[in-house]
């Protein structure tokens, strides 16, 4: 378990650097857009968002279905979270992205459980340390696994190959996805704000979330290592 936590801490550290770079990029785009003739782009973006949102639940259902299918077949989830924040705002975007990415991951998990084990076992054998750690998976183990820097489809496959219960997979994935989903959705939502001040608040919140989670993991790792 300590090895898994250590790998998760390293993985979250790498994702944290990506989020910081993304925040810096979005902040630069927003500054340029607000103080140059590109300001018209923001107005166009707001009209585009409004036209999508006018379709109500249909637009949410179509986005959720597309995001779930994309994650199921290996598309990284974080850009989808950012897109959800951009199109639907933080609260709706986070709820929609968390639900759809979890459903997509569960789709891969079920496919493996239902008979695709032989075709993907070779991939799992390339990571024997992870296979050992996934023996008798618990919700906490699934949570830590979600912080590793490995493609989501690979993790879903490995969890499907292990004797993971369905409710354990869903609960661990839901909780494990939350930290980075929140950060990515905040960044996307910040890009979609018409006000520069609102964009800055969203981006600072994204940095606070990712740094807070990294600090918690670091404290837990140090405590476990000391004991």
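Q: What amino acid sequence fits the structure above?
A:
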């Amino acid at each position: 378990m300590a090895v898994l936590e250590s790998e998760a801490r390293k993985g979250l550290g790498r994702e944290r650097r990506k989020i910081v770079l993304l925040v810096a990029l979005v902040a630069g785009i927003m500054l340029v857009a607000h103080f140059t003739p590109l300001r018209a782009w923001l107005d166009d973006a707001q009209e585009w968002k409004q036209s999508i949102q006018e379709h109500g639940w249909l637009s949410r259902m179509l986005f959720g279905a597309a995001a779930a299918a994309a994650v199921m077949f290996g598309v990284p989830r974080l850009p989808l979270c950012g897109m959800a924040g951009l199109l639907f705002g933080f609260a709706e975007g986070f709820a929609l992205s968390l639900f759809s990415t979890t459903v997509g991951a569960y789709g891969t998990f079920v496919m493996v459980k239902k008979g695709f084990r032989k075709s993907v076992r070779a991939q799992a054998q390339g990571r024997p340390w992870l296979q050992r750690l996934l023996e008798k998976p618990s919700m906490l183990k699934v949570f830590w696994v979600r912080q590793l820097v490995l493609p989501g489809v690979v993790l879903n496959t490995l969890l499907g190959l292990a004797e993971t219960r369905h409710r354990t997979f869903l609960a661990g994935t839901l909780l494990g996805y939350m930290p980075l989903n929140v950060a990515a959705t905040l960044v996307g939502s910040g890009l979609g704000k018409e006000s520069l001040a609102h964009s800055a608040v969203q981006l600072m919140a994204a940095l606070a979330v990712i740094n807070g989670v990294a600090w918690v993991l670091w404290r837990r790792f140090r405590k476990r290592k000391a004991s």
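Q: And what stands out in the fold?
A: The CA atoms of residues 179 and 212 lie 9 Å apart.
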